[in-house]
Amino acid sequence: MAMVSIKDVAAHAGVSPGTVSNVLNRPGKVAPATRERVEAAISELGFVRHGSASTLRAGHSRTIGLSVIDIGNPFFTEVAAGVEDVASELGYAVILGNSAGSPDKEDRNLRVLSEHRVRGVLITPSGEDPARLDRLREHGISVVLVDHPAHRPDQCAVAVDDVAGGRAAVAHLLAKGARSVAYVTGPLTIRQCMERREGAKAAMLAAGLDPGELRVVEATTMTARAGEKAAAELTAGPLPEAVFCANDLLALGVLRALLRAGVRVPEDVALMGYDDIDFAAASTVSLSSMRQPTYQLGRIATELLLDECDNPETHAHQHIMFQPELVARESTQ
Amino acid sequence: MAMVSIKDVAAHAGVSPGTVSNVLNRPGKVAPATRERVEAAISELGFVRHGSASTLRAGHSRTIGLSVIDIGNPFFTEVAAGVEDVASELGYAVILGNSAGSPDKEDRNLRVLSEHRVRGVLITPSGEDPARLDRLREHGISVVLVDHPAHRPDQCAVAVDDVAGGRAAVAHLLAKGARSVAYVTGPLTIRQCMERREGAKAAMLAAGLDPGELRVVEATTMTARAGEKAAAELTAGPLPEAVFCANDLLALGVLRALLRAGVRVPEDVALMGYDDIDFAAASTVSLSSMRQPTYQLGRIATELLLDECDNPETHAHQHIMFQPELVARESTQ
DNA sequence: CGGCGGTAGTAAAACGTTCTATTAGCGGAG
DNA sequence: CTCCGCTAATAGAACGTTTTACTACCGCCG
User: Fold this and answer.
1) CB contact at 8 A, A178 and A331
2) Chain A residues whose beta carbon lies within 8 Å of the beta carbon of residue B245
3) A250, B82, B95, B258: which could form a disulfide with A245 (CB 3.0–4.6 Å)?
4) Cα–Cα distance for residue pair A304/A60, rounded to 1 Å
5) Distance between alpha carbon A13 and the CA centroid of its chain, in Å?
6) Do residues B211 and B205 make contact, with C-beta atoms less than 8 angstroms apart?
7) Complete DSSP assignment for B2-55
8) Cβ separation of A283 and B281 shorter than 8 Å?
9) Which chain A positions have a beta carbon within 8 Å of B43's beta carbon?
10) Which of B243, B177, B238, B237 is nearest to B216 (CA)?
11) CA dist., res. B294 & res. B276, Å (int)
12) Which residues of B275-306 are buried (b: 16+ CB within 10 A; e: fewer)?
């Protein structure tokens, strides 16, 4: 347990601790000869800077927090990959928090992030309570919303138009001839689920149908397992001609259950997912879906956050809204 | 940017900073009346403890590092979910590092983790260089290997028997009547890929075949896209009767490419994956695979790590080796 | 009534950095 | 030869906690 400090390095190189600090942080400020001496001492002693001490004194860390709703969902995994890539390029560490849809857990995670004095937080909020995020801001922690429109003007946000997505999805189903549509969704407290439903209704209205006819099946989570359960509910009554699912995991579950029940897709029921995760194209019946620029979402959000942190005076807050893209496959032929 | 410190709380509650610290860390040591007063002050001022200061003084943090090879792979995502669950239950934060198979990136990540003075590190090493991990240990950072056997006795490790897995997979293919087998793998520098190949050869030997006949196609990454490319190489020559893939992502890619090339699975070629990710069961032709206790891998590794950190004197190092389980589906009917 | 043991709380020193003055050294302009 | 300006390096305070040693107080026993 050899804890080598900056002092040891200084002694070994015959300089003062301040000089070592300068070598570490502003190498330009120190004469080449001494710099080399210090660098030699550093590698010789195996010194590694104590991040906490540095954070304490400097007042800020090189760490950001990422809070997502479900790390098991490939959508968020891909977002996380984008975040991690940018962060790592710029020398930031990422602390991962998985809220699993529970606001309590999200709160706990945000508390941990506050204690770590992260530079900023990327979050896909699971509820609609901006107060907690405002509290972070009051503590000087920048917040960028991911896959969620901004709560307020002086804040960055990167989102995808979910109303448009829901509308395009259901419009596509209706164009294929379906007259009755079911919407299999996660908890309607989740904004994405709610807005995709609004879009779905708008599409029905535009097609001259009664939006009230949209049959909504609400699952408690957005997983394949939950999709299977939801499908059971569908097959219990008269089958709709089309099913729109709030994400691909639900859709894959619904697909599996329908096929097992002897329902043909798309002949008996047309099926649409959302997110266009990699596996949508590879499933039993390849799945039509709404593609979102997932990896880009993570990258851009992180770039905005780090710009806000590193250049607070020149930073301009941005609200970015992507448009989702329809990908038609077998499940809606 | 109201930075409330323990001193402010102390002043507000009319006590000394030391007492506030006691309320935070050993509430039993302080009289109920004062404790309440302090707690009131804490919530009134919105105080949140400065983790770095605490880490600096106490000498250790409540943070662990997790370094995986590919966060985009559902296998690792599920491991991460297990890790996150246990860590969060015990009040630890998790710093995520994605090595993307590059030892350089892994090194960078480990350096970041060292700087953060994490309590311990969970790692699926991408190479076979134990030296870097030993360096961590010298700095007092515990290391637990995940999905990898132990490098040394005084270390915990949680692994799955990859040789046995490879053997079982290929034995299954041979039992279904295949005589020629191809192995589509990621880089053979990855231990898992190598050992599964050894298992595959052992199975051929046991069946009276020449292990040298195993046709090995080495992809540069272990993704579906890489699988598609590898399949192109397969379809170029005479088709093998069976293909064993080092993981399910490769297998899904191979499957997609084979079907597109008009090759029937399993009639023309039997196909096996590895990991049994959720999507294996849902794919076009449902995929036979080797199931591993993935979530448990993450959970148990984290429990071992935190036990090692929190009870260093009573902790007994463990090498846990799980056995994978064959799951037969359509692709090997 | 003096001393003893226990509890509740305090003061002050650490932890390893960064940062702000400050000094030392030196070349060149006046 | 003095003074200015500049670079290179230093000393020492500060960041917000935790911890150790200490004091103050109270009740109780002898």
Assistant:
1) no
2) none
3) A250
4) 18
5) 46
6) yes
7) ----HHHHHHHHTS-HHHHHHHHH-GGGS-HHHHHHHHHHHHHHT----HHHHH
8) no
9) none
10) B243
11) 9
12) bbbbbbbbbbbbbbbbbbbbbebbbbbbbbbb
Question: Rounded CA gap, A297 and A276, in Å?
Answer: 14
Query: Is B56 in CB contact (< 8 Å) with chain A?
Result: yes
Q: Which residue has the tokens 């950072």?
A: B141
Closest CB from B1, B91, B116 relative to A51: B116
**Cα gap A272→A290, rounded to integer Å:** 8
Q: Which parts of A18-101 are beta strand (E)?
A: 63-68, 93-98
Dmax (CA) of chain B: 84
Q: Which of B158, B138, B24, B10 is nearest to B82 (CA)?
A: B158
Residue type (1 letter), B194? M
User: Which tokens hold the place of A226?
Assistant: 């939950």
Choosing among B42, B67, B104, B116, which should be mutated to test the A contact, i.e. which has the most A CBs within 10 A?
A: B116
Q: Which amino acid is at A316?
A: A
Chain B positions touching A224 (Cβ under 8 A) are 278, 282
| Residue with the two structure tokens 């807050």 | A317
Whether the model pTM is above 0.85 = yes
Q: Is the CB of A16 under 7 A from strand D?
A: yes
Q: How far apart are CA B289 and CA A89, in angstroms?
A: 36
List of E strands, B77-141: 93-98, 120-123
Those of residues 265-294 in A touching chain B at CB distance below 8 A are 278-279, 281-286
Residues 6 or more apart whose Cβ sits within 8 Å of residue B151: B130, B133, B145, B157
Distance CA B25, CA B6 (A): 13
> Each residue of B278-331: pLDDT tens digit?
999 888 899 999 999 999 999 999 999 999 998 888 899 999 999 999 999 999
Residue B265: Cβ within 10 Å count: 20
The gap between B104 CA and D7 C1' (Å) is 37
Residue B275 three-state SS: strand
pLDDT tens profile B264-293: 999 999 999 999 999 998 888 999 999 999
- Å separating the CA of residue B19 from the C1' of nucleotide C11: 12
Residue A2 scores a pLDDT above 70: no
For A123, the enclosing helix (H) or strand (E) is strand A120-123
